[in-house]
Amino acid sequence: MEEVSSLLKRNQNRNALGLLSRVAVKKGESLYFIELDQVVYFKGEGSVIKAIDVKGKSNIICENSLLELQAKLSPSDFFRINRSEIVHKKYIRRIESYTKSSVAVYFQDNQISLVTSQSNTSAFREWLVN
């Protein structure tokens, strides 16, 4: 019961701040929704933004830019590691040095890795431990 209460409170806080709890996905002429808890990371490819879910499925979402999407996501849960990717803290399993000033981010399956930009690495490390 406490867990349900905690989830409800978190959603109310998120809504009060104008943050998303799910994203709209376009498939043909219809829309469906994915809860943010199911999104491992977002990837921008040109004018298209994809949400990669826990099953590894790539879903084209209805957002104009990563910058606009980032503004609607909880900063405690999501971090923009470079100009084209936003990661979900919940699914990060490990990081390791990639270059002198960037790290590779590995998720639950350890097969996919994304690399932080040099300018975001320090802030990413700090965000990860908080």
Give an overview in words:
The chain is α+β, with helices and mostly antiparallel strands and 130 residues long. It is globular, with a radius of gyration of 15 Å. The chain has one domain: LytTr DNA-binding domain (OB fold (Dihydrolipoamide Acetyltransferase, E2P)). The mean pLDDT is 88. Strand 8 (92-99) and strand 9 form a beta hairpin. The chain has helices spanning 2-16, 66-71, 121-129; strands spanning 22-27, 30-35, 39-45, 48-53, 58-60, 78-82, 85-88, 92-99, 102-107, 113-115. Helix content is 23%, strand content 42%. The chain starts with a helix and ends with a helix. The longest helix is centred in the N-terminal third of the chain and has 15 residues, at 2-16. It has 3 helices and 10 strands. The strands form 3 sheets. It has a 5-stranded antiparallel sheet with strand order 5-4-3-7-6. A 3-stranded antiparallel sheet has the order 8-9-10, with no helix packed on it. Strands 1-2 form a two-stranded antiparallel sheet.
